[in-house]
Amino acid sequence: MDRPAALVPLKYVAVGGRGPEDVVADARGRVLTGVEDGRILRIDGLADDSPARVEVLAETGGRPLGLELLPDDALLVCDAELGLLRVDLREGIVRILADSVAGERLRFCSNVVALADGSVCFTVSSRRYPLDQWIGDIVEHTGTGRLLRLAPGSEHPEVLLEGLQFANGLALSSDESFLVVAETGARRLTRYWLSGPKAGQGEPFVENLPGMPDNIWRGAPDGPVWVSLAGPRIPPLDLLHRAAPAVRAAAARVAVRAPYRPTGTIGVLAVDDRGTVVHHLTRHRSGFRLVTSVCEAGGRLVLGSLRERGVAVCERPDPK
């Protein structure tokens, strides 16, 4: 991997709520996000010198995380408390698409993409820990993350892939032949084949990432997959992951009770469909921390965070 370039901040925009965990951009350069109190927000004017405008589109009543815009002015939402949702952005009406799989409640939906055939694929980060104890799953290294698919008209998701280490961000390849899944706890991107001779199989796509991947986003089929890095590599954590299960479980019990203090090192990557890293941007001693998402809007990079009360706007590198 090439030496990283600087992630250059331009401005910070408060959104009136805590934890804009995922950010996605629409065709007009507006950014949508969900915050801790359940509201779905749309932010306009991030590329302008004038103050940005924040509009409330809906309230889920839960905790929205990953988002996916649909062409019919609707939004798919992974809600950590309620499951997989569909939100009508014109009326603000929220409908639950799925809240369980094989009788098990969807505890921790994370990110979602829509396929051309009308089906929806989404991730579940953990079957053991809820969102407010996410650090426990990272420390224990449970491998209970899943990739699920909901067929058109169905209310019952099927399991495509399991045993994932904190399954998180999700994006489609340009030709929809495979999905890219971020495994936060393993510092890797995994490929799941949707078609071709390897259909139904998962395999490593990009390994040994310089940080922990969170949400991932692709704005156009010919554009790169942007990967947010929620934190840098932590060698003691890598060592702990090789310890016995009982040791990891004991460490997790301590971790969920200790206050989490994110580091000041943040970063983002961009990869192509061959798994080649085309951009690696990083910033040390950043005041904006725990970057959990990134998207392009108005010629800028926009960063979201599970922790902050706004989004950060940064310079976008020249295309390669």
UniProtKB/TrEMBL annotation:
InterPro entries in alphabetical order: 6-blade_b-propeller_TolB-like, Strictosidine_synth_cons-reg
Protein's name in the database: SMP-30/gluconolactonase/LRE family protein
Similarity comment: family membership: Belongs to the strictosidine synthase family.
Keyword line: Glycoprotein, Phosphoprotein
Signal peptide: none
Residue ranges occupied by any Strictosidine synthase conserved region domain in the UniProt entry: 116-196
The keyword DNA-binding is assigned to this record: no
